[in-house]
Amino acid sequence: MDTVSHHGRETAYRRTDFGDDGPPVCYIHGSGGSHRVWTGIYGRRSNTRPAVALDLSGHGESDDFDAEPGFATLSAYADDVLAVVEETGASVLVGNSLGGAIVIHLLVERGFEPEAVVLAGTGAKLAVLDDLLTLFETDFERAVSFLHGEDMLFHDTTASVTDHSKATMNAVGQAVTTRDFRTCHTFDERDALGDIETRTLALVGEYDRLTPVAYHEYLVENMQNATLVRIENAAHLAMIEQPEAFATAIERFLAQ
Predict the structure, then answer these.
(1) 97 near 31, Cβ under 8 Å?
(2) Chain-centre distance of CA 223, in angstroms?
(3) How big, in percent rounded to 5, are the helix, strand and coil portions of the chain?
(4) Any idea what DSSP says for residue 57?
(5) Which secondary-structure segment (H or E) carries 221?
(6) To which H or E segment does residue 17 belong?
(7) What are the helix (H) ranges across 39-194?
(8) Are strands 92-96 and 25-28 parallel, antiparallel or unpaired?
(9) Which helix (H) or strand (E) element contains residue 16?
(10) Is the pLDDT of residue 48 over 90?
C-alpha cells in the first residue's frame, strides 16, 4: 500500500497499472468497508486504465480523524479522496454507497471537476432505518448480520465471501461503522443534482434493497448527463458479486 499525508493523517491506497501510465480511475468504498471490496475490479489485467483504491480514514490501513457524524465526517472523507486524486492524477471517481455520497459532495460542495463519475449502489439521499442505527450502537453483531441478510449487501454469494465481508466490517469496528451510517443518514443532495454537469454512470445491482434501482433512476432523471446500468444477479456490493459485469459497464461508459 502507498500512502499520502494530508490534514495531519495518512491515507492508504493501492494502485495497479500493469504498465499503463495514463490517469487512473479512483475507487471509493462504502460504510464499514475498505479498498478490498474493489479487488475484483482493480486487479483485472484487462483494465483499460490504471486503478487506485483507497482506504477512507479509520478504515483498513488509513489513519483516523476526530469528527462528528454528518457533514464534518463527509468533508473529512472528501479530503481523503482529494489527497489521493492529487497524488495519483486520477481523473475518474467511482463511489459505492457512502463512497457515492462522497463523490456527489465533491461535485456539489467542492467544485471538483473530474472527467466522469460512477455512482454505484448509492443515491442523492441515503436515509438509514432508525432501528438499524440503534442496533449499530447497542448490538453491533446483529447490525452486521442484518446487512448480510437477503438482497442487502449480497444477492447470492458464497459463505466465504459473506464471512470475509463481516470480518472487514468488524475490523473497521463499531465506532467508525456507526459514524459512517449516521453520516449517510444525514446526507441529502437532491436539490443540487440539477446543477451537476459531469458525465455520470448510475450503476446498481438489480436486487439491491439498501439503495434500490429507484434511487439510481432518480439520479438519472435529475442530473444533466447521467445514464443507468443494472447489474444482473447482484445486490448492493455488485462489484464483488459480478465483477466482470461491473467492470465492463464502467469500461463501456468511459469508452463512449
Answers:
(1) yes
(2) 19
(3) 45, 20, 35
(4) T
(5) helix 213-222
(6) none
(7) 39-42, 71-88, 98-109, 130-138, 140-147, 159-172, 174-186
(8) parallel
(9) strand 9-16
(10) no
Q: What is the pLDDT of residue 17?
A: 87
Q: Using CA atoms, how far apart are residues 140 and 154, in angstroms rounded to an integer?
A: 19
Unique residue bearing C-alpha cell 495531519: 8
> What is the per-residue pLDDT across 63-110, written as a single tens digit (0 to 9) for each?
999 999 999 999 999 999 999 999 999 999 999 999 999 999 999 999
Q: How many residues does the structure list for the chain?
A: 256
Query: What CA–CA distances, in Å, run from 54 to 111, 186, 227?
Result: 21, 23, 25
Strand order through the sheet with 92-96 = 2-6, 9-16, 51-54, 25-28, 92-96, 116-120, 200-205, 226-231
The answer to whether 136 and 142 have CB atoms below 8 angstroms apart is no
Q: Return the C-alpha cell found at 164.
A: 470475509
d(C-alpha 195, C-alpha 198), whole Å: 9
Which H or E element spans position 10?
strand 9-16
User: What gap in Å lies between CA 25 and CA 29, rounded to an integer?
Assistant: 13
> Which residues is 94 bridged to in the sheet?
27, 118
In the block, cell 465471501 appears at 161
Q: Could you identify the residue written with the cell 461535485?
A: 107
Closest listed residue to residue 56, CA positions, set 16, 92, 4, 129: 4
Q: Name the H helices within 173-209.
A: 174-186
